[in-house]
Design a protein that fits this description.
This protein is about 45% helix and about 15% strand. The protein is α/β, with parallel strands linked by helices and about 290 residues long. The protein starts with a strand and ends with a helix. Bound molecules: NADP nicotinamide-adenine-dinucleotide phosphate.
């Protein structure tokens, strides 16, 4: 069975590609990207690397030709993704792809983090209404995204946040990729929605102690209201759109939208997911360097 990965040159796409060429015959792996030159290593290993851009739907006819199963990696073009994803799903149907696996977000509908999650929920709705068989992977926050937060907190000796008592269960991109590859390479996943999370839900207090532990430098927790955090971020020069988006993200955590721990990663991959400690420890030197 020929299996397509869209967005194959992104961080997640490359990790999925590396998994799939091990699980399937490389010539059965079709890697679609706007940057084929970035995937020469996979082409040299026998994978079929093709150009495709959701903003150029005509390019998708050749890009998806012959594929039977497809991983649709949500794009990073927040604000335009619902049209991009709709065009990609239409092109997949037209090309004869039977089954699409889509990368979504935990609790995507009505999430206070806004378009970042909402567009993914809307794409799920489009997929459900399409003639395609589907599987949805709802990712918790990528654990790697804790790295800049951790580095800043260690540098300042303070973790400044508006998440209150909310918890988050970050999952590594590697575990997301392995879960996606397992779903693509095995049967029995049509019509299923999986929450893809890390092994535990952590509060801001847990994260501050983890940063302290890993860096050897005390990190104090500072809880602010949404308004105070907005003004603090804008006051230190954060562009207002980014400040509002960070505050909205914190509100999402506070309201429990990321407090999702699910055994799906272990069931799909055969091993427990990496913890935030594992992911940060792999970058321990960076944390210490900043501290
Ligand atoms: N759960 C989370 O915490 C979280 C965090 C960040 C992002 N995400 C979502 O997960 C996705 C993958 O994450 P990542 O870290 O791998 O992102 P990334 O490295 O920033 O990659 C962006 C992705 O978007 C694709 N893309 C952008 N414009 C496109 C277009 N016009 N047509 C087709 N594909 C397009 C890129 O594909 P090519 O460059 O190969 O064309 C690439 O796969 C993101 O795009 C975002 O939707 C989730």
């Amino acid at each position: 069975m020929k299996t397509i990965v869209t967005g194959a040159a992104g961080h997640l796409g490359r990790l999925v590609a590396a998994q799939l060429v091990e699980r399937l015959a490389p010539q059965d792996v079709i890697l679609v990207t706007r940057h084929p030159e970035a995937l020469q290593k996979f082409a040299a290993g026998g994978a079929d690397v093709r150009y495709g851009d959701f903003d150029d739907p005509a390019s998708l006819r050749d890009a998806f030709a012959g594929g039977q199963r497809m991983l649709l990696i949500s794009t990073d073009a927040v604000g335009r993704r619902i049209w991009q994803h709709r065009d990609a799903l239409d092109a997949a149907s037209a090309a004869g792809v039977g089954h699409v696996v889509f990368t979504s977000h935990v609790n995507p509908h009505g999430n206070p983090i806004g378009a970042f999650a909402q567009e993914l929920g809307e794409t799920e709705d489009v997929l459900h209404g399409s003639p395609l068989a589907w599987t949805v992977l709802r990712f918790n926050s990528f654990a790697e995204l804790q790295l800049p937060t951790a580095a800043t907190a260690v540098q300042n000796g303070r973790l400044v946040t508006n998440v209150g008592g909310g918890r988050i269960a970050p999952v590594s991109r590697q575990d997301c990729a392995e879960a996606a590859a397992a779903v693509l390479a095995t049967d029995g996943h049509a019509g299923r929605t999986y929450d893809i999370s890390g092994p535990e839900a952590l509060s801001a207090r847990d994260l501050a102690s983890l940063y302290t532990d890993l860096s050897g430098k005390a990190v104090q927790l500072v809880q602010l209201s949404d308004t105070m955090l907005t003004w603090t971020l804008i006051g230190i020069g954060t562009p207002s759109a980014a400040a509002y988006s960070l505050v909205a993200w914190g509100r999402g955590v506070r309201e429990g939208r990321f407090d999702v721990v699910d055994p799906a990663v272990e069931r799909l991959t055969g091993h427990p997911p990496a913890s935030v400690r594992d992911v940060l420890a792999a970058h321990h030197a960076n944390l210490l360097a900043v501290g």
